[in-house]
Amino acid sequence: QVLDSQYGMYVWPCAVVLAQYLWVHRRSLPGKRVLEIGAGVSLPGVVAAKCGAEVILSDSEELPRCLQNCRRSCLMNDLPHVPVIGLTWGRVSPELLSLAPVDIILGSDVFFDPKDFEDILTTVYFLLEKNPHAQFWTTYQVRSADWSIEALLCKWKLKNTHIPLHSFSADKERLASSSLPGRHTIEMMIISLARSDGT
């Protein structure tokens, strides 16, 4: 764990919950192509790679320290060949356009600042359009009842499925010998393209 006041330099409660989901579903991960967005310390992506997934880690190209942290996490976990790329939410870049196909997109606590919500979903929608079978697995911390992505999901023709934490033994204050997630209210959902019939 790297402790720093900067957001992408710290293991947050949502990362531990998403890592738990990946661990519970580890038998389905070998050979899956996984992209973690807003990776920061990269705990979920590292767990996915350790479970046999082909992982690419990404964070904002404007945050070189976060990208450096992704690389450091890979080295500390004997994953020197995991690619780390700069992807800024809401921005079309050569890195985004040239991404290899993906099966799973990961994002832990990316829905942190409401001003970023649409940029995140724009990027996710672009990736799901290119990979219609893919899913976006995301955990978020409930910080305000006023913050919602429901209208944006409709706008971008995305559907979400709520995943109860008890279904993967994450409804606890301590996971994997960690003091996280603590007493924070964490939620998980899987976002995918809505079919043309609206489902």
Summarize the model shown:
By secondary structure, this protein is α/β, with parallel strands linked by helices.
Total number of distinct structural domains: 1
Strand order of the largest sheet: 3-2-1-4-5-7-6
Helix proportion of residues, in percent?
25-40%
Shape: globular
Q: Nearest-angstrom radius of gyration? A: 16 Å
Catalytic activity: L-arginyl-[protein] + 2 S-adenosyl-L-methionine = N(omega),N(omega)-dimethyl-L-arginyl-[protein] + 2 S-adenosyl-L-homocysteine + 2 H(+)
Pfam families: Methyltransf_16
Subunit structure: Interacts with HSPA5, HSP90B1, TUBULIN, UGGT1 and UGGT2. Interacts with TET3. Interacts with STPG4.
Transmembrane segments: 6-24
Topology (elements, then pairings):
Layout: H1 13-24, E1 33-36, H2 43-50, E2 54-59, H3 64-76, E3 84-86, H4 94-97, E4 104-108, H5 117-130, E5 135-141, H6 150-155, E6 158-162, E7 186-193
Walk me through what this model shows.
A seven-stranded mixed β-sheet has the order 3-2-1-4-5-7-6. Strand 2, helix 3 and strand 3 (84-86) form a beta-alpha-beta unit. The longest helix has 14 residues, at 117-130. It has helices at 13-24, 43-50, 64-76, 94-97, 117-130, 150-155; strands at residues 33-36, 54-59, 84-86, 104-108, 135-141, 158-162, 186-193. The protein contains six helices and seven strands, in the order H-E-H-E-H-E-H-E-H-E-H-E-E. It has one domain (13-193): Vaccinia Virus protein VP39 (Rossmann fold, 3-Layer(aba) Sandwich). Residues 1-6 have low confidence and may be disordered. Helix 1 (13-24) runs parallel beside helix 2 (43-50). The chain is an alpha/beta fold and 199 residues long. It is globular, with a radius of gyration of 16 Å. The N and C termini lie far apart (40 Å).
